[in-house]
Design goal:
The complex is a heterodimer of chains A (305) and B (526). With 305 residues, chain A is mainly α. Helices cover 69% and strands 0% of the residues of chain A. Chain A has two domains: 52 residues, no CATH class; 219 residues, MetI-like (MetI-like fold). Chain A is built from 15 helices and no strands. In chain A, helix 5 packs across helix 14. Chain B folds into two domains: 179 residues, 3-Layer(aba) Sandwich (D-Maltodextrin-Binding Protein, domain 2), CATH 3.40.190.10; 206 residues, Periplasmic binding protein-like II (D-Maltodextrin-Binding Protein, domain 2), CATH 3.40.190. The chains are: A mainly alpha (305), B alpha/beta (526).
Chain lengths: 305, 526
Amino acid sequence: MAEIKRRHLKYELQNKKVKLTKADHVFNVVVNLFMVFILIVILIPVWSTITLSFRPNDYLGSNLEGMFLPPWQWSPDAYTALLGNDGFLDAFFNSFRILVGGVATALILTIPMAYVLSVHSLPGRKIINLIVIIPYVFNVGMIPTYLLVRDLGLMNHLSAVFLPGAISTYNCIIMRQFFVGIPNELKESARIDGCTELQVLFRIILPLSKAIVMTIGLYYGVSFWNDFFNAMLYLNDNQPLPILLRNILLASGMNEYVEVNAFGNAPVSAIKAASVFMSAIPMIVAYPFIQKYFTKGTLLGSVKG
Amino acid sequence: MRKLKSILLVVMAVLMALPVFAGGSKDTAKAAGTPDDPVTIDLWFGAAVTEAGMIPDDWVGYDIIREKLGIDLKLTMLPSNESDQDVRIQAAGAANELPDLFMVRRPVLTNLVKQGLVAQVDDCFEKMPVRTAQQYDASSIAHTTINGHVYGFASPGAIAKNEGLLVRKDWLDKLGLEIPTTLDEFIEVARAFTFDDPDGNGRDDTYGYGAFVETDATLKGYPGSRLWPIMGAFGVEGLWSFDSETAGLSIYKPEFYDFMVTLKAMCDEGLIDPNWLSYKKDDFRAAWKQGRFGMMYEQNAAYAATANYAPFDKNFPDGEWIVIDAITGPEGHAAIGAYDMNYRIYAVSQKAVDAGKLDKICELLEWMSSDEGYYLLGWGQEGVNYVLDENGIPVAGDLGDNAFTGSKGQVVTQLRNMVFYNGDVELASRYPTYVTEVSGKTMSALTTLREMQAKKWTSAVGSGTMPTPNADVQRYYDQSLAEFLTGAKELTPANWQAFLDQFNKIGGEAWNQAGIAKMTEDGLIR
């Protein structure tokens, strides 16, 4: 009955036959105002960062006044300085290499792992699942990981940043659940047609799993792109963007030492803001392309039946 | 799909093969230490300007060090943040992978010494006569002495006493006021600057004093160093008192309450820029350049260096700041602030000593302090990164980006903190005399520095090694003082005592006792 009512209401709303009451209007206004408020709260720091990054060197006002500085008074000095700095470009490229290598490695390792764990006929499946979950609950800690990376000869190698975390238990479990949800009949029919398990994975499962692969890929991508700690611990040179970004953000005392900073004559605060903004650009650019998959992927398991 | 599978398999194979090609460290224990068979020395250093980037592979210094010393130098730049440095060093220590020579903070050094990972260097100083004379005095050696042995080389760090109390002389002259010498006069001047329109614009837009909250856990206790000239008038500057009669946290001194009463009264009367509790450093510096206040506590270069003074010069061509003496309080106390000696410690790993590298490390450090090493590491190559002026001081000249102050030149001088010791040449090079663009004043951050250093300061040497409180105690300390100043909590003797009682209860007393024990142990009480 409730379902019928709901469908009827939806039909009427779509055909604009329902007259909204005064209370409905008030409710809509309040909700919209609230959403606008939330939007403003989100946009203020973003706008503040953007305007700060364009702050001219001779600007003297407060940060609040700076947010309303007209664009024709903006200065691109900070971006010019960053893009003209070899260190920034090298760090950006290193981060990009970690991103590509990390996501590729993580997906190559996570997909087969999740698929194997989703196969009910796998001998010792419960024990293997338990073994997978243990490190999720009990982290091995920094020193054993450091020793492992050292013994593998990965010190000062970019892969040291992403290999220790190449399989995230959390992501693996989410992917496994997705694979479990794919009708078994599809896999059975493929096997009857003579497919090996690898062929089942690549020809049947993966084409049906774009959403989860893209979503998990995005998760991995964001974590590798932002990874500071592993890079700080294992890399001596070829340092990626998070390391440089942290150094820039900590360089508050530059103008107390010499009269110019490492990035020319742009204000230190503008350099900081510009580097924050630029480091976020790849994620900002990538997200719209992945959004449709991401929405599907994150809804996995939220609807039963 | 088949194509994709093939690509994925190739990628996986390449990734799996990476460890095979990853470079391991080369054992150089048996190297002869000649240019043809150099000893490898791994050096983890604190870069001068970390964000400028790593020293390039084609840096001329590598070849010179190999040719002259028979050393193959491997450099690694440590993170700029101290806690990140600690993590990096401790992780390497736990894995017995410490480099041969590395920069380390004293608390971490102490732990590494306990673990037997750091070598004693007592005998090294006589092998480095030039460097020892320049950098390692008795105070420096005491800084790295643990249980009677020296476990590192402590070089001078940031310049001490490089801040001062500044007053707008043009405002004083306009209002017919004298330079304040006592606290009462200071408050009178602050009042006049606030209410008597010192800039003559007809608007009520100026304040007597400007500040922001600049604190740390060892030297600059809340409300921070920017209030030190006022705190100094009560003898409560610096988080810790090292005086034999009052050793311990300064907050326990009765005069601290008197200081709070005075500061609160100044805040209530509007004599201090009311934004001081929310200002960040950049806001504060923008404010004095906009002429918002007439007295402040500022660092020499942040005030007087070319780029930093230029906006003020443009806004107020007739404006003039002067460095004044510490103001004297009701009991005769006077101090600009409290100072500590900062050191950068470089330690040698036991592993390096076991590999027979200690002599080569001493040789390297001694070379760094030779004229050749000093200028190469400090300023780069003559004619490429610097030129000498008529006084023999390295200057940037017309070398553009390649100059030691330029974005490209800075990367080849990343090791300069290993050779600088705040000598005259360094300071003259760092702070050149110049003529301001608008008003044509002759300015020098070095002259300002010397003026500031000549004022009355209180020694708080050893503060950097004092114990720090846990986060709850620190938060309670800071927050309670802020509440008293803002009026959220009424500042009365009873409330003050209640605050101290609660502070003691949650761990303040234990912190104080640990500090006194540390002072006693290290002989810091004077």
